[in-house]
Structures are given as C-alpha cells and as structure tokens.
C-alpha cells in the first residue's frame, strides 16, 4: 500500500491522512503536571519573575503531560503566543496544568494553564497565562516517530 492510501484503498490528501492518524487523548487529571515555588534568582529588574522562566516551566509541564499520554522521548517543536496576564512574584506557588488536546501521528498538542497561588495571600489564585505547546515524539535517531498509545 502506498503512503498516501487509507486502509480502505482510497487515495488521501496529506491533511486527510493527519485526521485519520489522530488519536484520542486520555481525560484530564485534577492535579497539576508540575508545581513550583518562585525563587529570588528568577526575578527581572522589576522584581517580578522573568517570562522566560515561566516559559521553561510551561515546556516542562507539557512534557510531563505528553509522557502521561504516551511514554516516548519528546522535543518541543512550537509554542503558540503566550500572553502574561498577571505578574508572578517571589514566593508565589505556580501550578501548571497540562492537557493533551490533539494527538497526531508523531506530534501532540498540549494546552498548559498557569495559575499562581500568592505568597502574600495563599488563598488568592491568579490566572497567569496559558499556552499551546506542540511536542514531537522522537526515536533513537532523533527523527519523528509514531506515537503509540497504551
Ligand atoms: C521536531 C522535529 C524533530 C520535527 O522534524 P521534521 O522533520 O520537521 O518532522 P515532520 O515534518 O515529519 O513533522 C513531525 C510532526 O511535527 C509536526 N510539526 C512540524 N513542524 C511543526 C510546527 N511548526 N508546528 C506544529 N507542528 C509541527 C508535524 O505536523 C508532524 O506532526 P504529525 O506527525 O502528528 O502529523 C525537528 O524539527 C527538530 O528536531 N526540531 C528541534 C526540536 C528541539 O530541539 N526542540 C527543543 C528546543 S531547541
């Protein structure tokens, strides 16, 4: 069978092949993928936390969620526009929630939501930002490999 044929034998476009290859993600879990305390070393000149530090945690949360969905090695191929809506400060506890929204042949799209529990008032939870991260499963040669679900 050629690469561009559905098992039924129908010839398909590249986009149609992607739709056939989409798998169903596992349902969300209630707890965050990661939780982390913001430290003085992570501050910018304004005394709030560097955006790049939070981007790094978003990347980690997406990776943890990707592993929960299917245990492979992953690299990040893209992160869509990230808008910081609230500042994060030293002592805040960040909770990053991840949920896979699409699993393709070799790539997985993960939505990450970032919430901050305030050091000054731990009952106050701020919605800091959210991001859409695409991770690609790779094999031993670092080339994309098919994602295999449990
Ligand atoms: C990620 C990487 C392995 C993809 O290699 P590639 O040859 O472009 O792979 P393909 O074109 O076969 O695409 C693989 C998958 O990624 C997806 N993809 C590729 N580029 C993408 C992009 N810009 N945005 C979203 N998805 C993308 C494809 O749709 C495909 O998904 P699918 O199989 O589920 O349909 C390669 O680009 C790479 O190694 N990049 C560096 C990754 C890295 O080191 N990240 C850490 C930060 S430096």
**Unreliable stretches:** 1-10
- Largest sheet data: 5 strands, antiparallel
Number of domains: 1
How many β strands by DSSP?
5
Question: What would you call the shape?
Answer: elongated
Per-chain topology:
Elements (H helix, E strand, L loop, with lengths): L13 H8 L12 E4 L13 H19 L3 E7 L13 E11 L3 E11 L7 E14 L12
Antiparallel strand pairs: 1-3, 2-5, 3-4, 4-5
This protein binds coenzyme A.
The site of coenzyme A has 13 residues, from strand 2 and strand 5.
What does this structure look like?
A five-stranded antiparallel β-sheet has the order 1-3-4-5-2. Helix content is 18%, strand content 31%. The two termini are 26 Å apart. The chain has helices spanning 14-21, 51-69, and strands at 34-37, 73-79, 93-103, 107-117, 125-138. The chain is α+β, with helices and mostly antiparallel strands and 150 residues long. It is built from two helices and five strands; from the N terminus they run H-E-H-E-E-E-E. The radius of gyration is 18 Å and the shape is elongated. The protein has a single domain (14-138), classed as Roll (Thiol Ester Dehydrase, Chain A), CATH 3.10.129. A hairpin with a 7-residue loop joins strand 4 and strand 5. The site of coenzyme A (COA) has 13 residues, from strand 2 and strand 5.
């Amino acid at each position: 069978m050629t690469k561009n044929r559905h098992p039924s034998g129908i010839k398909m476009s590249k986009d149609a092949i992607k739709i056939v290859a989409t798998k169903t993600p596992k349902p969300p879990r209630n707890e965050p993928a990661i939780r982390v305390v913001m430290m003085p070393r992570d501050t910018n000149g304004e005394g709030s936390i560097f955006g790049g530090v939070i981007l790094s945690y978003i990347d980690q949360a997406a990776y943890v969620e990707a592993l929960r969905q299917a245990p492979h090695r992953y690299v990040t191929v893209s992160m869509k526009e990230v808008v910081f809506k609230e500042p994060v400060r030293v002592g805040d506890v960040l909770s990053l929630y991840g949920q896979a929204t699409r699993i393709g042949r070799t790539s997985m799209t993960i939505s990450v939501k970032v919430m901050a529990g305030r050091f000054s008032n731990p009952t106050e939870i701020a919605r800091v930002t959210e991001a859409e991260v695409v991770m690609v499963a790779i094999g031993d040669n670092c080339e994309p490999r098919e994602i295999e679900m449990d």
